[in-house]
C-alpha cells in the first residue's frame, strides 16, 4: 500500500507540473507579440508549485505509512 501511494503521489505531482507548465503557462504556439502575456490558465504557476509539493510529500507518505509485514 505504501509503495502504491508513494508512486501515485509522484506520478500525480509530475503530471500536474507538466500540465501546468507546458500546457497552461508556456507560450507554445503564441505569436511573438503575446509571448510575455499572462498564462492561459490564471493559476498555472500555483498548480506548478502544488505539483512540486506533492512530489516532496510523497517521501513523507513513504516514511510514515507502515511497511507490510511478511
Topology:
Blueprint: H1 2-23, H2 44-64
Helix pairs in contact: 1-2
Essential attributes:
mainly alpha, 70 residues, rod-shaped
Describe this structure in words.
This protein has one domain (about 1-65). Helices cover about 60% and strands about 0% of the residues. The chain contains 2 helices and no strands. The protein has helices spanning about 1-25, 45-65. α1 packs antiparallel against α2 (about 45-65). The radius of gyration is 17 Å and the shape is rod-shaped.
Concise account of the structure shown:
This protein has helices at 2-23, 44-64. The protein is mostly helical and 70 residues long.
- Could you say how many structural domains there are in total? 1
Which radius of gyration do the C-alpha atoms yield? 17 Å
The largest pleated sheet is described as: none
The average pLDDT score comes to: 79
**H/I helix tally:** 2
Oligomeric description of these chains:
single chain
Strand fraction equals under 5%
Compute the separation of the termini in Å.
13 Å
- The ordered string of helix (H) and strand (E) elements is HH
What's the total number of strands?
Answer: 0
The coarse silhouette is: rod-shaped
The SS-based structural class is: mainly alpha
Amino acid at each position: 500500500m505504501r509503495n502504491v501511494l508513494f508512486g501515485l503521489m509522484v506520478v500525480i505531482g509530475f503530471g500536474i507540473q507538466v500540465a501546468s507548465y507546458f500546457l497552461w503557462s508556456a507560450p507554445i504556439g503564441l505569436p511573438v507579440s503575446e509571448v510575455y502575456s499572462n498564462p492561459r490558465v490564471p493559476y498555472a504557476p500555483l498548480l506548478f508549485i502544488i505539483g512540486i509539493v506533492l512530489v516532496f510529500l510523497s517521501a513523507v507518505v513513504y516514511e510514515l505509512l507502515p511497511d507490510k509485514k511478511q
